[in-house]
Each structure stands twice: as C-alpha cells, then as structure tokens.
Design a protein that fits this description.
Length: 153
C-alpha cells in the first residue's frame, strides 16, 4: 500500500512518461498538442484519461451545470455516434446524467479497461497502448465535428 504522497508521485510519474511518449505525435491538424490536458475549445467539455488502482478509462465528459445544455451536448454527440465509432473502431459506453467521482452530475461517453493499475509499472505499457490510439482517434473525430457544436458554445 502506498502513502497518499507516494501514490500521487507514482501517478504523476506515469502521466509524465505518457506525455513524453506522446510528445512527438502531432494533432490531426499537424500541430503540437498537450495530449494529457486536451483542449476541446468548449467550456464544460473534456476529453479525460484516468488510471487508478483497478482500472483505467478514457472519456468524453460533459459537465455543464445546466442539465438541459448538458443533454443537448450529449444528444449532439449521439448524432455523430457512427462517425465516432468509425474513428475509434469500437463501441463505447454512453451515460447521460451520471455521477462523477466527486458526486457531480455529468454525462460521459467512455471506454474502460480492467484490471490494470497505474501503481504497477508493469501495467504502464498496457495503459499507454490503451490511451494512445483512443486519444488520437478522439482528436481526429473532434477536428471533423467540432464546428457542429458551435451553437452550444
């Protein structure tokens, strides 16, 4: 078992390693990009990657405080579900108005793997292999459809 500080350092070390691994990968527009802190350009809309002691996930998270607007974003993504699945080459889970780890109501479109642990360095290649193609595919998808979300900004 790790102390809170040790756990934090190990997670930080993983994300630093992942960031270094991805540093040479340009965005779909050929630009340098911070893959770990991906900017969608929309407030309350995030591409989130997280790894814990039992699982890891990558998600599109909509956390707008207005549930109606959150639902509009979610419905807009549903309009592009086939395109998204085409970029990802897989089907993701869709949850409208679910709770995040802090009890906040969000909507999430995500893919999860388990059992993996960010605290086990032997799992890091699996985690990197899980996150890399999916965040790249999300970037390609987002570059294609983001203009369709402008009315929701």
């Amino acid at each position: 078992m790790y102390s809170k500080e040790e756990a934090s350092k190990l997670k930080q070390s993983f994300w630093t390693t992942f960031g270094q691994y991805m540093a040479s990968v340009p965005s779909s527009e050929g630009m340098k990009i911070n893959w770990i802190n991906y900017k969608t350009g929309f407030k309350h809309l995030y591409f989130k990657m997280d790894a814990g002691k039992k699982e890891a996930y990558i998600a599109i998270e909509i956390n707008h405080p207005d549930m109606g607007i959150q639902e509009l974003f979610f419905e807009q993504f549903k309009e592009f579900k086939k395109i998204l699945e085409g970029y990802l080459n897989e089907t993701w889970s869709w949850k409208l108005h679910t709770e995040d780890e802090h009890g906040k109501i969000i909507s999430r479109i995500y893919c999860q793997i388990d059992p993996v642990s960010v605290f086990n360095q032997a799992d890091w290649p699996t985690l990197i292999s899980f996150f890399k193609p999916r965040i790249i595919a999300l970037d390609e998808f987002w570059n294609m459809v983001k203009d369709s979300f402008e009315a929701l900004k």
